[in-house]
């Protein structure tokens, strides 16, 4: 089972850190206590829809964008065989080219369509941490000739 509050918290933290903003700045803008926002980001508290909308507004993000990102992360995690297999047990090997194991025990990474990468870390028998990142294509140099 994937904990939705952890995926939401990871997505919010990634957006905040991507903007180089502190918890204090975002909590003040969203009118939520710093401690509560920290608990949300760590996946310890599940925010209400109103609070989630306020945090997204403070981050300058649309709620639909955040929920789409969370949905993509959960969908990719569901496709991974053995996401909830305890670390002590080795998952069955997967032949799909989009799934590759990393060197850290209990960590696997999936890339879908080259636009979303999901890293899954097995923290315990019933606890998995999902971290998603958007893969951005390398910027191309534009040469103009006159």
Task: Describe the protein.
The chain has 146 residues and is an alpha+beta fold. The protein has five helices and four strands. A four-stranded antiparallel sheet has the order 1-2-3-4. Helix 1 packs across helix 5 and helix 2 crosses helix 4. It is globular and about 40 Å long.
Provide the helix percentage: 40-55%
The succession of helices and strands, N to C, reads HHHHHEEEE
Query: How many extended strands?
Result: 4
Q: Enumerate how many helices there are, as a single number.
A: 5
Integer average pLDDT: 75
Strand order of the largest sheet: 1-2-3-4
Strand content: 15-25%
Based on CA atoms alone, the radius of gyration comes out at 17 Å
Helix-strand category = alpha+beta
Distance, first to last CA: 59 Å
Shape: globular
Low-confidence stretches: 84-104
Write a concise keyword list for the protein shown above:
single chain; alpha+beta; 146 residues
Write the SSE topology.
Blueprint: H1 4-18, H2 23-30, H3 34-41, H4 49-59, H5 63-79, E1 99-101, E2 107-112, E3 116-124, E4 127-134
Short description:
By secondary structure, the protein is an alpha+beta fold. It contains five helices and four strands; from the N terminus they run H-H-H-H-H-E-E-E-E.
């Amino acid at each position: 089972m994937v904990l939705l509050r952890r995926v939401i918290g990871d997505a919010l933290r990634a957006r905040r850190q991507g903007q180089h903003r502190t918890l204090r700045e975002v909590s003040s803008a969203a009118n939520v206590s710093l401690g509560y926002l920290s608990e949300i980001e760590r996946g310890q508290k599940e925010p209400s829809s109103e609070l989630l909308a306020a945090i997204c507004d403070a981050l300058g993000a649309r709620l639909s964008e955040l929920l789409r990102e969370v949905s993509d992360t959960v969908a990719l995690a569901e496709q991974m065989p053995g996401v909830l297999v305890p670390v002590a047990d080795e998952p069955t090997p997967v032949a799909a080219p989009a799934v590759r194991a990393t060197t850290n025990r209990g960590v696997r990474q999936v890339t879908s369509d080259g636009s979303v990468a999901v890293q899954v870390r097995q923290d315990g028998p019933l606890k998995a941490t999902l971290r998603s990142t958007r893969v951005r294509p390398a910027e191309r140099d534009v040469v103009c000739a006159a």
